[in-house]
Amino acid sequence: MSVDTTHEVATAAASGASATERFHTDKSPFAAVRDTPPERVDALARKVLAAVHATIREERVSYDEYNALKAWMINVGEDGEWPLFLDVWVEHVVEEVNTDHREGSKGTIEGPYYVPDAPERGARGTIAMRDGEAGTPMLWSGQVTSTHGSPLGGAVVELWHADSDGFYSQFAPGIPEWNLRGTFTTDEQGRFEITSIRPAPYQIPTDGSCGKLIAAAGWHAWRPAHLHVKVSAPGHELLTAQLYFPGDEHNDDDIADAVKPELMLAPVDQPDGSITVDYGFVLDPVRA
Ligand code: MBD
Ligand code: FE
Description:
12 strands; Protocatechuate 3,4-Dioxygenase, subunit A; alpha/beta; binds fe (iii) ion; binds 3-methylcatechol; 1_2-CTD_multi_dom; Catechol 1,2-dioxygenase; 288 residues; oxidoreductase; dioxygenase; single chain; iron
């Protein structure tokens, strides 16, 4: 009998702990804490607390409800699910206010599963995958240009996405380290061509604290299938985006509110059963 170990041990605690661990190894967030002036911390902390106080008064929150919140918040930390919670329910507004000046391509949230320094594959190549990786083969071609119109040769396209079961390498067990993660560098015309597979929709782990909130509130736990990218070039703003597939049943009710019409792919079915997609990026020069 064959045992599907990926499904058996892909627990919320395992993927949450990996996401928390990853955030700890990146020291830049801690520098930001130190460098934020006290006036700013004071203003933000007061506003958030005032919004909490207003909700308690308006809803006349009981002690049972207050203690349920306390227990739940303790569990989110124990599960390592703060990165998941924040990226699913908060990040989309941070992304909105920080990119609303841009004239180039739309972006969206990064989410909890980015890992830097994925294997380099040049301008044309196949992302790291297992022998016989399940899923529909996908050939993606595109070009990176600047809002001035010039092609950006040497631009870097970092791609990461879930497998055909909805699992990410380094956050679900039993998957090779760099599976479905790759770095591509555009040619002189700014062009790239990536071979990968079409990912499956992603379900928030149901056995952790975020899953408990979803169940308790009667929400659903799904994100539509998506490709994550970071696109960068010297002198240009880093673009973090996700691309989606038309017809996914959760494109209109993404739990993370990260779908935009500009991020929709137009896949073309090929006679051999694979799909091709053509999607490029326009980067904004860094503001003077
Ligand atoms: C994901 O794959 C994701 O992209 C986000 C934003 C949240 C949880 C899982
Ligand atoms: Fe994702």
